[in-house]
What we know:
- By secondary structure, the chain is an alpha+beta fold.
- The protein has five helices and seven strands.
- Strands 1-7-6-5-4-3-2 form a seven-stranded antiparallel beta sheet.
- Strand 4 and strand 5 form a beta hairpin.
- The protein is elongated.
Amino acid sequence: MLHLGETLGFVYHEPPPTCILNKCYRSAPEALTRFVENSIMTRRVLIIIIGTLLITGCYSTKRSIEKSQPYGSQIHWPKDYRPEDADFYIHNQLQINAPAEAVWDLLLRAEDWPNWYEGMSNVKILRSENAKIQPGNQLQFSTMKRDFTGTVREFEPPYRLAWETKNDKLKAYHAWLIIPNEDGCLLITDEVQKGKLAKLQKVFLPNKLRKLHDIWLTGFKETLEN
């Protein structure tokens, strides 16, 4: 005998056995338990990763301050840009077998930097009469996929040069120090950063800018010694 549903063209399905329903009811709490356990484990892993990144960033800044001595203390840091108060700080130095005056002249030719330094592009010295950095000049440049404008804050030939950059996410002070010695001079570049971008860089990219500045100094050395 046909069921009424079959007569009307509907397919009839028997209800699932009670044992299957009971199994589903029992497995639901187990699935929820596994989900919670996996969530807790994921959270713990994230905490470990973030903690490791924070420790690495802090260590990187601390190491930079230690490595900068005794020269870092010779830089004329403004009150708002002391390394010990920075969100991010890096120090680089390199011996160059060339006179301080030659290093200084190349340093002032900022628009030529991209020719031998991959970390900077679109460099423009504003209101310059001789295509060189002068006291009070502004520099426009792109680095690490961002555009910046720096204002020269210190200009002491042929030993000291520094500029300051500011925007809504970053404040930075980049200082250069040239120390003459019997083999030529020691070229030092230090940078203090503050702000959101500085904090992110300290945690996630603590060594990228340091490596770029090493390349920058190497460019000075190869250009002047070859």
